[in-house]
Amino acid sequence: MRALVLEEKLKLSLRDIDLPLDLGPRDVKIAIHTVGVCGSDVHYYTHGRIGPFVVNAPMVLGHEAAGTVVEIGAEVKSLKVGDRVCMEPGIPDLTSKASKLGIYNVDPSVTFWATPPVHGCLTPYVVFPEAFTYKLPENVSFAEGAMVEPFAIGMQAAAKARIVPGDTALVIGAGPIGIMVALAALAGGCSRVYVSDLVNEKLAIAGQYDGIVPVNIRETDLKARIAADTDDWGVDIVFEASGSPRAYDGIFNFVRPGGTIVFVGLPVEPIALDIVAASAKEVKMETVFRYANVFDRALSLIASGKVDLKPLITGVYSFEDSIAAFERAASGNPNDVKLQITLG
Ligand SMILES: [Zn+2]
């Protein structure tokens, strides 16, 4: 079957590759329609690895997908042929301790699309478990369906923050994930979400949404701005979504006493945190690894119109032009949020 294959670092090809398509009783076969290009796909392309995950053999890229069910296993009940769906790309062992606790995203045996050695979904057909395949509401397009996966990270961050209606928040980093986190925080009840970055183009994209206050930290002292707006109290929640080593320096200055910091970004190297500064405010700290139990909630929010992800899709490529899509994504154009590839 034809697929977009990362042969090795910096070498992509669109070629035939043997991929298993055996349909188990609780699996569905899906014709892929749209796949989003993710920062992690691009990182494997440009660096050949993410932390301990190293591309040692050709691997099909892609994990943000929507498509149409074309065949169902004998015991599938919730889906039928013709259903439009999106897929949650991590498959845990459903009998594991983590799964029983509801934290299946941190099941040590989870397999995840396009995380070595597991192939991704940039290929015309995949077979996937019914349990992690979600029917798209009628008014949710394939393009939006393929945005559920990156939005799910924002959903997980918002859930971890335990937002109370009216909370104020700061999101550090206006990249795709930062914007997803800000939108999920607003949908979760935040009254105002500051989004900070160094790049005006990214801030302009974030700032088009009501409730988001963009702050360029080259031009504005973020600590002084938040202090001025909150009577020196601080925001209720800080989401770190940049992974930039500089972002952790002084991060506890922004949060109010008893507030929460959610670490979403993944710094490449270990970083130091000022635990005394955190203790002095009894700051609550949370971490995020992918997501669990949020896909159907994300779909409900999109279908309701409360979250509009369409303005974040800044380029669409055909499957035949997949390599061009990855080259553009790797070029780091600050006006791009999400590029998608369509196969349908
Ligand atoms: Zn992704």
TrEMBL record:
Which terms are listed as keywords in the entry? Metal-binding, Oxidoreductase, Zinc
Q: Which SUPFAM superfamilies match?
A: GroES-like, NAD(P)-binding Rossmann-fold domains
Required co-factors: Zn(2+)
Name residues in a coiled coil: none
Q: Is Iron among this UniProt entry's keywords?
A: no
Alphabetical list of InterPro entries matching this protein: ADH-like_C, ADH-like_N, ADH_Zn_CS, ER, GroES-like_sf, NAD(P)-bd_dom_sf, SDH-like
- What GO MF annotations does this protein's record show? D-xylulose reductase activity
PROSITE patterns assigned: ADH_ZINC
EC class, as a word, reads: oxidoreductase
Electron transport in keyword set: no
Documented EC number(s): 1.1.1.9
* Domain Enoyl reductase (ER), chain residue ranges per copy: 9-334
Family per record: Belongs to the zinc-containing alcohol dehydrogenase family.
What is this protein called in UniProt?
Answer: D-xylulose reductase
Q: Which organism is it from?
A: Kaistia dalseonensis
Query: What does the organism's lineage look like at the top?
Result: Bacteria, Pseudomonadati, Pseudomonadota, Alphaproteobacteria, Hyphomicrobiales
